[in-house]
Amino acid sequence: MKSALVLGAGGFIGGHLVKRLKREGFWVRGVDLKFHEHAETEADDFMIGDLREQEVVRRVIDRRFDEVYQLAADMGGAGYVFTGENDADIMHNSATINLNVLDACHKRNIKRVFYSSSACMYPEHNQLDPDNPNCAEDSAYPANPDSEYGWEKLFSERLYLAYNRNYGMECRVARYHNIFGVEGTWDGGKEKAPAALCRKVAMTPEGGTIEVWGDGLQTRSFLYVDECVEGTTRLLRSEFEGPVNIGSEEMISINDLARMVIDLSGKSIDIHNIPGPEGVRGRNSDNRLIREKLGWEPTETLRAGMEKTYAWIANEAQRRHNLH
Ligand code: NAD
Ligand code: GDD
Predict the structure, then answer these.
(1) 5 — phi, psi (to 5°)?
(2) Which pLDDT score is estimated for 63?
(3) pTM of the model
C-alpha cells in the first residue's frame, strides 16, 4: 500500500486532500497544530504537532513516504496577511516549517514533496491594472511581492528547488490562486473573500446591506478546492517541477462576486464599499504553462463552486445562530 503524508491536514485544503488520498487507497498520515474544525479526519493516523519544532518533524517523518504534501503555513485572507500586523510571525513560522520539513525529507531519502506556494509571490507592479494583471510564471523576477507572506513563499519556493538541484530530490512547486469551497475558514479573521461574502450575505436579512472592502473594482480569480486537489496530485506525480499556477482564469471584480452571492441567496441586499485591507489591485491565474506541462487545467465555473460554498456556509451560520 502506498503511503502519503499531509502536513497541514487540519486545515482547509489539507482536509480535502486527505479525503482524496484515502479514496485513492493510500495509507495517510495527517499532521497539524489542531484537529480540523469542520470535519472528522479520514487520515489513518493524525498527529497533533508543531512543525516549527525540529524534533516533532523528525518524529512525523519517520519513514519513507511515497508522497509528501507540505501545506502547513501561517496564512489567511487579506484581513490577516495584508494588515502588516502579523508579518514577523508569518515569515518566521512558515519558513521554519519549510526548513525543517525539507531537512527531514532529505535525510529519509524521500523524493516527492509537494509545496504550496501562492500567487502572492508575484510582483506588485504587474498587478496594478485590475483588467489586465500579469501572473505568468516567468514574470516572478525581478521580485516585488506586495506582502511579507509573498516574500516567504518566494524564499521557500527557491528552497524546495535548491534541494532538487543539490540533493536529487523531486519537489514540485505550485502557486495557488485563492482557493475556496466547503469546509473552509469562514469567520474569525483569516477567511478569504468568497467565504467572507457568503457569511455576510447569509447573516444579513432581506433588504439589508453588506460591507465590502475597497471600491469593489479590484479583481481576482477563485478556484474551487476539488480542482485544486486534482491539480496538486497531478503535479506531484508529473515530471514537471514547476513553479506552476494552480488557479482559475475566470477573473471577476469583488463587487461582482458579492452580487453573485446575493443572487444565489435569493435575497435583495445592497453593497456598501468601505476601506479595508485590499492587497493587489488585480490578479488572475495564467494557465498557459499548466496546460502545456500537464495537459490539464480547471474547468468548473465560479458560480458552480460558489453555489456549493454558499449553501454550506449559510447552513453553518444558521447552526451557530441556533446554538446561541
Ligand atoms: P489553512 O490555514 O486552512 O491550513 C494550513 C494549516 O497549517 C492549518 O490547519 C494550520 O493549523 C497548520 N499549521 C500552521 N502552522 C503549523 C505548525 N507550526 N505546525 C503544524 N501545522 C501548522 O490554509 P489552506 O487554505 O488549507 O492553505 C494550505 C496551503 O496552501 C498553505 O501553505 C497556504 O499558504 C497555501 N495557499 C493557500 C491559498 C488559499 O487560497 N487557500 C492560496 C495560496 C496558497
Ligand atoms: N477577506 C476578505 N473579507 N476580503 C474582502 C472582503 C472581506 O470581507 N471584502 C472585500 N474583500 C476584498 C479584499 O480587500 C481583497 O481586495 C479581495 O477581496 C480578495 O481578498 P482575499 O480573498 O482575502 O485575499 P487575496 O485574494 O487578496 O489573497 C488571498 O489569496 C492568495 C492567493 O491568491 C490570500 O488568502 C493569500 O493568503 C493567498 O495566498
Answers:
(1) -120, 125
(2) 96
(3) 0.98
Q: What percent of the chain lies above the pLDDT cut of 70?
A: 99
Which residues, other chains included, contact 167 with Cβ-Cβ below 8 Å and sequence gap of 6+?
A: 106
Domain spans of the chain, in order of start: 3-179+223-246, 181-221+250-275+300-316
The Å distance, Cα 229 to ligand 1 centre, comes to: 14
Q: How far is the CA of 256 from the centre of ligand 2 (A)?
A: 14
Ligand 2 atom index nearest CA of 277:
14
- Is 149 one of the annotated active-site residues of the chain? yes
Q: Residue whose CA is closest, atom 21 of ligand 1? A: 32
Residue-wise pLDDT tens digits, 7-43: 999 999 999 999 999 999 999 999 999 999 999 999 9
Query: In angstroms, what is the span from residue 64 Cα to ligand 2's centroid?
Result: 37
* Among protein residues, the one whose CA lies closest to atom 4 of ligand 1: 11
Q: Is 156 in the pocket of ligand 2 (CB under 6 A)?
A: no
**Second CATH level (architecture) for the domain 181-221+250-275+300-316:** Alpha-Beta Complex (3.90)
Answer yes or no: CATH 3.40.190.10 is held by domain 3-179+223-246: no
Nearest by Cα to 65 from 21, 113, 136 = 113
